[in-house]
Amino acid sequence: MPVRRLALTIAPTIAMALLAATAAPAQQEPTAQGATPPAPPPFSAEEQAAMAAAMAKFNAMPDTPGTGPYPAIKEIARNLPGNTVYRPANLAAIKPGTLGVVGWGNGGCSPDGASQRLHLAELASHGYVVVAAGQILSGPGIEARPPGEQGERTSEKDVMAGIEWALAENQREGSPLHGLIDPNKVAVSGFSCGGVQALSLARDPRIKAIVVHNTGLFPSGAPMMAGMTSDKAWLKALHTPVLYIQGGKTDIAYENGMDDFKRIDHVPAAILNQDTGHGGNFMDENGGPAATAAVNWLEWQLRGDAKAAAMFKGPNCGYCTDSHWTYERKKLD
Question: Going by C-beta distance under 8 Å and a sequence separation of 6 or more, which residues neighbour residue 39?
């Protein structure tokens, strides 16, 4: 699906990031035939208006605290101004050494750390400090900025900076998070371009779980967004179980994600598909079924939760029999 049409079918914050990506020539690798793919045409005034209207509607949606036992908030920490933090609001209710950490890459590698806010609050409400690359550039009370004024797209270094900040705060005297985090419960996750960022970081030995949404690594020579890098060889560096959550055959990332899954043969892997297209459930209340699946994976992989594990393993596993999902797995049983 051409980028200009794809943008009209996905979450508006990602569409805006794609719009920004087409404003400058894409830094693309040559194709296998040696020719550089042409840059996509600019969006029409009508397409831009449709995306702006969708963005305004999403901005008006209230933040949600999630459905977990620890209602969540989002904030910008004073000593981490370039990232957005999602965490349980009442840290006094947290038992020391129990919080997990999730580093998050935004769709479109957007600098908007609130672009998947409903999903991230859901994760945080289950006892995680989720740190998204980028500042709060959307949501209730935030004046929408044109793509060219949002700033540079994020990199995997920005995602890792969030993880390292959380681990440092766990050690810092006087930090609200001091002593609350288990440094062995660290995951990385992301959506679309942000999922590629997550996969690039998965080799870090501190990472214990991976969940990526609507994404897959590009083969050599494939056209990519400006500044984006991707290499199927990264898959060999995976050292933890990995879950892919895809949007079915209409998802622009479907083929790349399915190809990743086929190539992974040395660590446990699972892939879930639902017919949502590339936008997934990120505009749904509390992140919808995809957020629930991500929580289940994290609870199993990081906390050994048996009920969560039963959703993915065994002959009658929850996702094996759930008609809303198509599920495949390797090395999980």
Answer: 22, 25, 26
